[in-house]
Amino acid sequence: MAKICDFCGQKIGLLSHHLDFEDGLMGEKCLIKYKMGTKHSIAPGAKEYAKCHTVQSFKDFVSDGDSFKDIQQNFLTDKEKDKLVKKEKLEAQRGELRPNKWYLLFSLVCIFLGTSLILITPISNIVIKQMTRTALHTTVNRTSKSKASFNFKKVKSIDTISVVKGFFNQARVIGIISIPAIKLKLPIYQGINNVNLVKGAGTMKPNQKMGKRNYTLAGHHMTNPNILFSPLQNIKTGDTIYLINKSKKVYSYRVTTKKIISKYQTSYIKDVGQKKMITLITCASGKPGEARRIMVRGILN
After folding, report:
1. Of residues 17, 18, 220, 221, which has the active-site annotation?
2. What domains does the chain contain, in order, with CATH numbers?
3. d(Cα 41, Cα 52) in Å, to the nearest integer?
4. Active-site positions, per UniProt (predicted)?
């Protein structure tokens, strides 16, 4: 005959846990409900409690808002007490060894951010080099439909966002500048917007023509001494600057002047009568906010 739980009236399975009270049984579902056991075991002290209590007395006990957990310690056998003490010690030891989850999460975030900051500059430099190489192998465009900007105030230091924008924005190459003595070779773009300057040199005035008057170019000085206009720090008087236009005509200039100027000395980009010259401008260092500029000037050979 199937056993019935005297608390809920449901049948108790043959393999289910149950608790024997003085005058009745508690099935597995009620064991879990009243926190006197689980699907796998009966709670310590529950058997001793049930031996000396009736079904009704327990119902009255829980109806008052009490819980078996509140009195469990009073019904533990010596063996159960020993097990409980050992369990508490083991959990305490595990707790000491287990780091706080928020501390662990914070540590992982710090490690991720630190690694990102360390790697972001080298990765950006690699991308800049690749964009420059790709642009140098691009056919020089005869016309450019995009509007060129010559507003110096809008030029910002290169950051991750500008590198990403430069990667996805295919600006039109209008020429090439090459200075063999310092191993500099870059595409030339019309204007000095941030997309252009992240991968090459930009013209500083509208309607400039190579070999005519003062041809001015600007470029970024990076912490990496080998990319963009950074090599200009090593240029010397007498070095040769080559420009290649859209018709692949080559213009050569001999460097006559190299000096440090203020960023406010913009007169160097102006034409000097009909003199045929070139002027290159870059920051004096790769530090953000650098107020000085390297100015290199050469005359047409």
Report:
1. 220
2. 3-91 (no CATH), 116-300 (2.40.260.10)
3. 20
4. 220 (proton donor/acceptor), 283 (acyl-thioester intermediate)
